[in-house]
Design brief:
By secondary structure, the protein is mainly alpha-helical. It has one domain. The protein is about 55% helix and about 5% strand. The protein has seven helices and two strands; from the N terminus they run ββααααααα. The chain has a two-stranded antiparallel ribbon. β1 and β2 form a beta hairpin. α5 runs antiparallel to α6 and α5 packs across α7. The longest helix is centred in the last third of the chain and has 43 residues.
């Protein structure tokens, strides 16, 4: 159990069914109000409070590419980052099911991006150790394009190809009858 300002928060794992949890209306209603912005002075060990602090790092070292930090200033594990990315994909799948997934993350309506940040930060409190939720936003900026390309564009193409082959097969059988 993680403790953030004295409040216990159970960490998410890849084995949890994030999609089921996200569809729970009671959970979402409880998260309706965004938590207050944390103050940098309360977390002096966080190195990447501002995005510019992280983006000015020039090394190609994997540790420097991971910008999410624990409360004590250590970068999160790759397993934790995998959990964060999986949860983000689950959220985007829900947005797609609802018809609210934008073609580009930068075109997301404000209530969608706010909902994404709110749910991500509630599930992964370490995403709150920054100014103006830039870490949650940056996860979306980095990973949404490939998710959208695969889940929306590629799946759509596969469905079109499948429907063409079905219609050709139907025409073939009609011709034989």
């Amino acid at each position: 159990m993680l403790f953030l300002h004295g409040v216990g928060v159970a960490p998410a794992t890849a084995s949890e069914s994030a999609h089921d949890n996200l569809n729970d209306v009671a959970v979402e209603a409880a998260l309706e109000a965004a938590p207050p912005q944390l103050e940098q002075d309360d977390f002096p060990q966080i190195k990447f409070w501002f995005r510019r602090d992280w983006s000015t790092r020039g090394d190609d070292d994997l540790e420097l590419k991971i910008f999410v930090e624990t409360e004590d200033g250590n970068i999160v594990s790759e397993t934790r980052m995998d959990d964060i990315r999986k949860y983000a994909r689950n959220l985007w799948e829900i947005f797609l099911d609802e018809g609210t997934a934008p073609p580009r993350w930068g075109e997301a309506k404000p209530h969608i991006s706010q909902r994404f940040r709110r749910l991500m930060c509630a599930q992964f409190p370490e995403l709150r150790f920054c100014d103006n939720n830039w870490k949650a936003d940056h996860i979306a900026t980095l990973h949404y394009p490939s998710w959208y390309r695969y889940w929306v564009k590629m799946k759509s193409k596969k469905q079109k190809i499948r429907s063409r082959s079905v219609s050709r097969t139907s025409l073939f059988y009609r011709y034989l009858l």
